[in-house]
Amino acid sequence: MKREITALLLLSGLMFYSCKKTAVQPNTDGITITTPTTSTSTTGQTSTSSNADGPSVTGLVRLKMTKDSINSDGILINFKPTAKPIYVIGEDAPALQGYGVVTLSSISSDNVPLAINSLPLSGKGRSINLSVSSTMEGVYKLQMESITSVPSGYEVWLMDGYKKDSVDMRQNPSYSFNIYKADTASSGRSRFKLTFRYKVN
């Protein structure tokens, strides 16, 4: 009986094997099969969501006004995407009127003179009013001491409204000017602007 059962099982297995279908490969003679691939950029550039407007910036600019090796004053412009152009306690630092010969400050959008000015910069550009004053008339210098992490696509221009002049601070980081005690327009808040422009190639 066991032999008959075994024989039946073997016969069933052979019949099942003989009924299996063999996979048929298509004829690909003369046909090129292309496998889709994912393209990866190797330029090393970081894309932004607004190329036309330029990237938002996190960076620092230090400016200094100098009379001589003793008399000078400096300010810091701190670009942060989350900052506001108005004066914000704890984020900006107001300029304190001291007893020095030279005073330099940047002006917030709500007209507060600042020693540290935190504000946003994007491709739309930014103009910042500067206030210059001195207890003595004579020749002074405005100097961009350093510019850190501001992309080279941003031009930096110092605009002199008194002399109707402008200078590219990236190319010429020092600018000489006169203050005349008899002419109030030669100093104060209305003479200078620091302008950042995004240059689209």
UniProtKB/TrEMBL annotation:
Keywords: Signal. Residues 28-55 are annotated as: Disordered. It comes from Mucilaginibacter ginsenosidivorans. Residues 1-23 form the signal peptide. It comes from the Bacteria. This is Uncharacterized protein. Residues 28-50 have a biased composition (Low complexity). The lineage of its organism: Bacteria, Pseudomonadati, Bacteroidota, Sphingobacteriia, Sphingobacteriales.
